[in-house]
Amino acid sequence: MINDYIQDNKQRFLDELIEILKIPSISADSAYAGEVRKMAEDLSVRLSDSGADHIELIETAGHPIVYGDKIIDPKLPTVLVYGHYDVQPPDPIDLWESGPFEPVIKKTKIHPEGAIFARGACDDKGQMYMQVKAFEAMVKTNSLPCNVKFLIEGEEEVGSENLEDVIKANADKFKADVILVSDTGIMANDIPTITTGLRGLSYVEVEVTGPNRDLHSGLYGGAVANPINALSKMIAALKDENNHITIPGFYDQVETISEDEKTLMANAPFSVQSYCDALGINDVSGENGYSTLERATVRPTLDVNGIWGGYIGEGAKTVIASKAYAKISMRLVPNQDYNVITKLFEDYFKTLAPEGITVKVTPHHGGEPAVTPVDSDEYRAASMAMETTFGKKPIPLRSGGSIPIVAMFERVLGIKTVLFGFGLDSDAIHSPNEHYGLFNYYKGIETIPLFYANYAKLKSN
Length: 461
Ligand code: BES
Ligand code: MN
Ligand code: MN
Fold this sequence. Notes:
This protein is about 35% helix and about 20% strand. By secondary structure, it is of the alpha+beta class.
């Protein structure tokens, strides 16, 4: 019945996604604030057309939140669906094979049935919209088994900094039994996975200053500290020869991984060779003593995300820049606290400055790590749903990415989350040519109603 509805409306579900992918809702760039709002307004109409009531644009100090719900019986459990309608900037634009906001469907090796290429296709418009269309299918076939609330925000990609205040001020409105989020991935289209953990984040920008103006590199070179050379050395000093982070105290709160979880990771169908092949690298690299899967999920790390300074135009200009900059992210694991880590970084980084150099550290957004339980009705409902549609029991695995609101929801509302994502690591999120498989889009729409059915059933026992 519901599957017939999904089948009959398949093309429209895709056409609607294509429409929302055309709106450049780039939350980081204030020049696009109007587009972000347009996206929120468009989505609220679509949510209403899909069957939700009490549609509202909740204003924040930044971009608005889209809210809608369907309360069929206060005695039934309530699922709060969280997603985000904002996207990352599309840069570098030259590397896109088609316009980032001109969605096209193309076949790829991994997606032989086609994938939709556009910024936000996978992260998170495509995945968020699966939730909306699965909801529509349940409403229109009278098979919605519990209450639903939608909270779709427009600031996830910039750290969700205004969400906590809104949640605290409206705790009653967001009351629910479980939070359902489709913003993560599976290992492969034939290896279903449920994400059971996310890393936290400390993101800082550093500014390194030498002389008070740019200098002729012949007249002054060799006699004053060069900020770019100094910054390079300081960054290099943040890791030792074992790729261990050298910041004193950095690992103090890091939780050790249980033997069970280690075994789970060791047995996961992960191949270093295919990982390297997919990335065009001849070997992996990371902290000594840990596997690639461990390095990318349960261990903290530090990476430079951007670095600039000096002359980068055509030809050669002989100059010593006055300043050099870098943006650095640290991915954190339980029980690291991003405020503590940010402070440890700042104090240590300053000690690395050579004579003649001053350092300024500016923290950007942070986020808490999260783990989600596997011995709960929520997890079982999700696992059984995937087992039905994939024909295989999903593997519980942590992810290396961050969704800071997961820990915040638990802290503020006391509600746990199920990470029910269907993307692939190869979908190039945050990167040029981001895409989302049609297989994944439809598989999500088909699987989500089973989560609801299983969950309602388990909760009524
Ligand atoms: N959806 C991603 C996070 C993600 C992707 C988790 C794939 C697991 C698997 C989210 O939109 C994201 O990009 N988060 C940011 C953090 C945020 C504070 C900017 C991240 O992880 O860099
Ligand atoms: Mn996302
Ligand atoms: Mn993202």
